[in-house]
Structure formats: C-alpha cells, structure tokens
Specification:
Helix content is 51%, strand content 16%. By secondary structure, the chain is an alpha+beta fold. It folds into 2 domains: 44 residues; 122 residues, Glutaredoxin. Strands 1, 2, 3, 4, 5 and 6 form a 6-stranded mixed β-sheet that branches. Strand 1, helix 3 and strand 2 form a beta-alpha-beta unit. The longest helix is centred in the N-terminal third of the chain and has 43 residues. It is elongated, with a radius of gyration of 24 Å. The chain starts with a helix and ends in a 9-residue tail after the last strand.
Amino acid sequence: MTKQLLLLLQLVVLLSLGGCCDWFKKNTTAAKSESAQAEAESALMPNITSEEHFAKLLSETNKVLVLKIDAPWCSACKFLHPLLIEAAKQAPELVFARLNIDQLANIAQQHNVVGIPTLLFFKDGKEIQNSRIEGAEVKDSNELLEKIRTSAKRADIPGETIPASETAAPQG
C-alpha cells in the first residue's frame, strides 16, 4: 500500500512540475513578447531623453514631427498611447516622438503646454501654429489619425510655422 501511495505521490509531483514548467514557459514567453512590443513601439515613437535629444530630432527631421507630451501617471495619456502607436503605423509620412512632462518640463513650458496629453507638430525645426491637439477625446485610431493629418497639413500653409524659440512662454 505504501509503495502505491509513494508512486501516486510521485505522479502528482511530476504532473504539478509539468504544469509549473508550462506556466513558467508561458509567462517568460509573455514577458519576451511584451519586451518585443515595447521595442517596436519605441522604434515607432521614441522617447525624448533630453533637451539635446529634442533639439537634434527637430534639426534632423525633414518630415512633420508629432510630439506627444504625456506622463506615466496620466490615465488619458495611457488611453491615447495605443491609438497613437496605431496611427504611427499608418502614417509613415510623419515622425512620432514622446516626451515625459515630468522629466522634461522645460520643453513643455517653452511650448505653453498646460495639460496632458498634448500633441505638438513641428516642421523644419519650427512649431506648426494652430495645430496642437489637447486631450484624448477620440473614439479610435482612425479618428486620431484624421486629426493628426489635418494638423500636420497646416505646415503647408505659409506663415503657420514659427521658430521654437518664439513659442517660449513670456518671462516675468
């Protein structure tokens, strides 16, 4: 009887280890998948890491730059993010980037950003006037993409771009 009980116990242990291994494989695969997704998103919409990085991106980009200003704690920003990633996939004619307002508040202040999420548009190193999109009031990525493309087209209107230095908030 004890031999049978011992075999049964060994069988239970082996089955549970097999389940454990399956769980481990599934979760490590999921982690790798999330990491790959984060890398793909970063390629579509890189994070601005410094004022120098932002200035370099402005000077080297010959397309319209769509700059998303957000924060990791902002629920509206979290809602907008996957829609913006999808829009970036569908709009190769634009360049997308992301700026964390908590890390680079100076840039947001220079462009008079008062709420997040905010999308700013730049062409030839200059902000496109009357083009910003504030908030996350969109239903889906198609509606967001339509708004983005409408704002980006303002770059083609004479006098709608001004140097970034002229958008700075007044000192005083």
